[in-house]
Design brief:
With about 280 residues, this protein is of the alpha+beta class. It has helices at about 5-15, 25-40, 60-65, 90-105, 120-125, 150-160, 170, 190-195, 240-255, and strands spanning about 50-55, 80-85, 110, 135, 140-145, 170-175, 210, 220-225, 260-265, 275-284. The two termini are about 20 Å apart. Bound molecules: flavin mononucleotide.
Length: about 280
Amino acid sequence: MLQTGDMIEAIKRRASVRSYIDRPVEQATKNRINDFLGDHNQGPFGHRVRFSLIDLSDMEQAESRQLGTYGFIKGARLYIAGVVKDLPGAMEDFGYCLEQVIVRVTDLGLGTCWLGGTFKRASFARKLSVTEQEVIPAISPVGYASDRRTVRERIMRRFISADQRKPWTTLFFQGDMNKPLAKDEAGDYVTALECVRLAPSATNYQPWRIVKEDNVNVFHFLLKRKPGYGKLLRAADLQLIDMGIAMSHFELAARQTGLDGDWKRSHFDPDGNGAEYLISWIER
Ligand SMILES: Cc1cc2nc3c(=O)[nH]c(=O)nc-3n(C[C@H](O)[C@H](O)[C@H](O)COP(=O)(O)O)c2cc1C
């Protein structure tokens, strides 16, 4: 495993970057990113992600022009893309693995932006020889951030309240989903949960809900879907990707604060609260 820096600090600092300056990412840094991609390509549900680092500068103009983002990303030449087999648990694993990489790339001082919708999926799929059983759930540009956001990005961020997160009492619970868990009741896991709260999610919807069991450090991860959202994009279940991202933040922060545990499929009944149980963190 590679030596890594302050992951909690990187999680706190990360924000989507959609405008990049015209400075190529150095070869040594690209090598580091490739190492991260090789090190973090298997998730807690057991699926493997086939990652690629795509440099548009290495391509003929005609080819690179096809790998577009509909104008949502400005100035990026480097992209991380990943392919998974379209199986249960694969979206969560994809979110988990790519976020492990994105936090480390943030730690290197580079900008990123999860793109699950606004990229030319079919062109990237051709480039990565995606088979019928596989999908590209999302991609991310990588590069040096411009210090100015475009007007379009500022409007978009305002529209989805990208700088805000739901309060603790909406996201986290104790015992069952009717009893909110306040920040001062979270004990050793206060940082891990706060890092989940800061996670990026598609349209900033934040579908993660976590229930801590009474008296033990067992945390059940649940998905509370935005109604009708799944039908919006058939190619990838973005809210399951969000769940994997949340798991990544939780585990990175837990481990950095000296807490050890395992991901296990266990049982939890959300008791009619409109949430889906996915997985649990069980402290060792
Ligand atoms: C799974 C996923 C898919 C996303 N897809 C897009 C996208 O297609 N286009 C885009 O501009 N932003 C996309 N985003 C970025 C979110 O809008 C962003 O993370 C959220 O608004 C919070 O802002 P922040 O990342 O700056 O904290 C996506 C994020 C996630 C996690």
